[in-house]
Amino acid sequence: MHSKEGVDFFMLYYYDYKIPRNSFFAREVSFTRFGAITEERREEIKELIKKFFEDEEDKKTDINRYMKVLEFLGSAGAHVRMPSFDEQVLFFILACDPDLVYLKTYLNMGIISVKEIEAAPKSKKRKLEKARSEQLHNFTGSMREQMGFYDSKLLKYESVYFDEIVKYDGLVSNFKGDATTSLLRVSKLVRTFESVTDEEFERIKMISQEYQDSVEDPNSIHTLSYNILAKKRKVNLGSLKAKFVLLIHTIDPELKMLQIYEEESNVEEIERRVIEEFGYYDMELIRLERLYHLRFCPDKVISAWSDERKLLWTQN
Q1: Are 228 and 237 in contact (CB under 8 A)?
Q2: 234, 171 contact by CB (below 8 A)
Q3: Terminus-to-terminus CA distance in the chain, angstroms?
Q4: CB distance 45 to 87 below 8 Å
Q5: Do residues 86 and 31 touch, judged by C-beta distance below 8 A?
Q6: Global confidence as pTM
Q7: Is 16:69 a contact under the CB 8 Å cutoff?
């Protein structure tokens, strides 16, 4: 027999959480990936959220706010104001996690995808499945700690919201997080910038200047990396090589990382100085700067004792 506290906890968990949640997501078969929601309608939903929470002193997302949103979405009033499931999902996302903490944390944790496991050799699948399970467990715990609740559906719909809406909106001015590591995952595919034409380089320089004039923190390598990855219409670059040329030309046109590398013989000191200057260190950036130097400014003196021939390891 349950204690009074046990019964109360069960009632809170089941009736205040499971029932409205299951009722809400029972309509997800009608979801159309926000296709019919205009920018004007999105703004109206944001205003509705402001009014919905205007009496609350604490705007922080927690389990109580989450359950209040689910309760509202199950009401007749919500269905009158937002007839479509897509509109209700948008309300759900922007009311519970407007900063997309779920999605950003998931991406920053580098969780192994199902596609990666499916593509892996049979001998490695079990190991990858176990690693993914542990990563998801850590992600769940992180969300409960940061947000006060965990809901896998919120992550699912945030991903769609990002793909269908966020990446086509304006540039992000000041990204909080590490997007550079994600961008550099494919950098090893770039062995040379020789195929980037002079005309393309001039266009990249124009995009770089427009970018710097548009964002709050143009010197942030993570903000630029995020915009390169996410804002494909705003940072309109055709090739992978062009993306890395833009990254270097915008963040370090004087090739200071490469200069530090040439000046120091100690790896720890190289890392310390680069982090102090740029807030981030990865040897791949120095390799890419060498490629940039060879292609676009070969006459630039990096250091008095630099030997070009010894540094052609970047081509190997």
Answers
A1: yes
A2: yes
A3: 71
A4: yes
A5: yes
A6: 0.56
A7: no
Per-block average pLDDT, block size 10, for the chain (316 residues)?
39 60 91 86 92 71 86 91 95 93 90 90 93 95 92 94 77 79 90 94 93 87 87 75 95 95 92 94 95 94 61 47
Q: Residue 17 gets which letter from DSSP? A: I
Residue 303 token pair: 């250091």
For residue 275, what are its two tokens? Answer: 């982090």
CA gap 8, 6 in Å, rounded: 5
Tokens 């086509």 belong to which residue? 168
Name the residue ranges covered by the structural domains of the chain: 4-168, 180-315
The rounded distance, in Å, linking the Cα atoms of 208 and 203 is 9
* Main-chain dihedrals φ then ψ at residue 134, nearest 5 degrees: -65, -40
Q: How far apart are CA 137 and CA 129, in angstroms?
A: 12
How far, in Å, CA of 64 to CA of 116, rounded?
A: 36
Phi and psi of 130, rounded to 5°?
-65, -40
Do 312 and 192 meet the contact criterion of CB atoms below 8 Å apart?
A: no
Do 172 and 211 contact (CB within 8 A), yes or no? Answer: no
